[in-house]
Amino acid sequence: MNKPLIRLIKKEDNPYVAAIVRSVILEMGAPKVGTAYADKNLERMYEHYQRDRAAYFVVVQDNKVIGCAGIAQLDNYEGNVCELQKMYFLPEARGTGMGSKMMNICLETARSFGYEQCYLETMPYMEAARKLYKRTGFYNIDQPLGDTGHYSCPVHMLFDL
């Protein structure tokens, strides 16, 4: 088994990323509507991130995509804030430290793009993810920022870059 590698998404990764996001959402029992499951860009993640100040990464091990996450300008928000987007890992990637490595890459990329803060939305019962976010330095805020379309995600967090 080869060591996992984090790299920028390629066009051929699109179906694997969509499958990971949907399978984890189903596994966690999250709603399909009002979450990333129903995002219109889920099938075209490579294309969606081909814009200024945006990047999407995948974790690959033995030629298999096992995790993903990205950052981009927070939708429908005027401030200099990015959003940590669609961070999901298959079971074989969890507990391996890849989440922390991915988080560090995303936050360093956000800093390099000049963002001042990073926002995310999640579910209250995604405990392992919330622990990672808090350990990284994200803190809870009382209301959503912008309008991501993920109205089913009631936990809102912010990180000062």
Features:
161 residues, alpha+beta, Aminopeptidase, 4 helices, 7 strands, globular
Detail the topology: elements first, then pairings.
Layout: E1 5-8, H1 14-27, H2 45-48, E2 55-61, E3 64-73, E4 81-89, H3 98-112, E5 117-122, H4 127-136, E6 139-141, E7 155-160
Parallel strand pairs: 4-5
Antiparallel strand pairs: 1-2, 2-3, 3-4, 5-7, 6-7
Overall pLDDT confidence: 94
Name of the level-1 CATH class = Alpha Beta
Q: Which class of secondary structure composition applies to the elements?
A: alpha+beta
What would the principal axes of the Cα set say about the shape? globular
Largest sheet: 7 strands, mixed
Radius of gyration: 14 Å
| Total domain modules | 1
- Strand content of the residues, in percent? 25-35%
Question: What is the second-level CATH architecture?
Answer: 3-Layer(aba) Sandwich
Do you know the CATH topology? Answer: Aminopeptidase
Q: What is the strand arrangement across the widest sheet?
A: 1-2-3-4-5-7-6
Helix content: 25-40%
**What is the CA–CA distance across the termini?**
35 Å
Count of runs of 4 or more consecutive helical residues: 4
User: In the CATH hierarchy, what is the superfamily?
Assistant: Gcn5-related N-acetyltransferase (GNAT)
User: What is the H-and-E element order?
Assistant: EHHEEEHEHEE
Which residues form runs of ≥5 with pLDDT under 50? none
Total strands: the figure is: 7
